[in-house]
Amino acid sequence: MDIKDIQNLIKFVSKAEVSEVKYKTKDFEITIKTPLAGSDAVYAQPAVYHTAPQAVAAPAPAATPAAAPAAEKAEVASDDSKYVTIKSPMIGTFYRKPSPDKDVFVNVGDEVSVGKVVCVIEAMKLFNQIESEISGKIVKILVDDATPVEYDQPLFLVDPS
């Protein structure tokens, strides 16, 4: 069952106004619980803790002209136009590793091919492998590990040449 099937099942359950649905197959099980309209049931969500990446402020050079960063940004923007972006197909939490004790899927400079797993996105306690849709070289990783991502958010820049 893929994420679209799960999303459709959630929509169906919410429209059907039922309190609980269990869907079970040989190797997959999902339970969806919703409060019934007019019921006094209270459902508590478990607390989710995210650790924010620590930002380290670099000391700014005293004699840097203001025009140099603007020119550098314009140059980077023109260079990025030749790259292809791998975007998030869903909302969830972005992870570069399959598990905390494993190596990352890809690093900057790694070659990827169509179908190679580049990251996982956790959505509703399900870890969805995100595969590359293009072949090329990873130029930039745009998201920090273990941070929330939105639908269609850019994750990687790939040089297809």
TrEMBL record:
InterPro entries: AcCoA_biotinCC, Biotin_Carboxyl_Carrier/Decarb, Biotin_lipoyl, Single_hybrid_motif. CDD domains: biotinyl_domain. Keywords: Biotin, Fatty acid biosynthesis, Fatty acid metabolism, Lipid biosynthesis, Lipid metabolism. Coiled coil: none annotated. Pathway: Lipid metabolism; fatty acid biosynthesis. Pfam families: Biotin_lipoyl (PF00364). Residues 83-159 form the Lipoyl-binding domain. It comes from the Bacteria. Gene3D superfamilies: 2.40.50.100. This protein is a component of the acetyl coenzyme A carboxylase complex; first, biotin carboxylase catalyzes the carboxylation of the carrier protein and then the transcarboxylase transfers the carboxyl group to form malonyl-CoA. NCBIfam families: BCCP (TIGR00531), PRK07051.1 (NF005457). PANTHER family: OXALOACETATE DECARBOXYLASE ALPHA CHAIN. This is Biotin carboxyl carrier protein of acetyl-CoA carboxylase. It comes from Chryseobacterium candidae. The lineage of its organism: Bacteria, Pseudomonadati, Bacteroidota, Flavobacteriia, Flavobacteriales. The gene is accB.
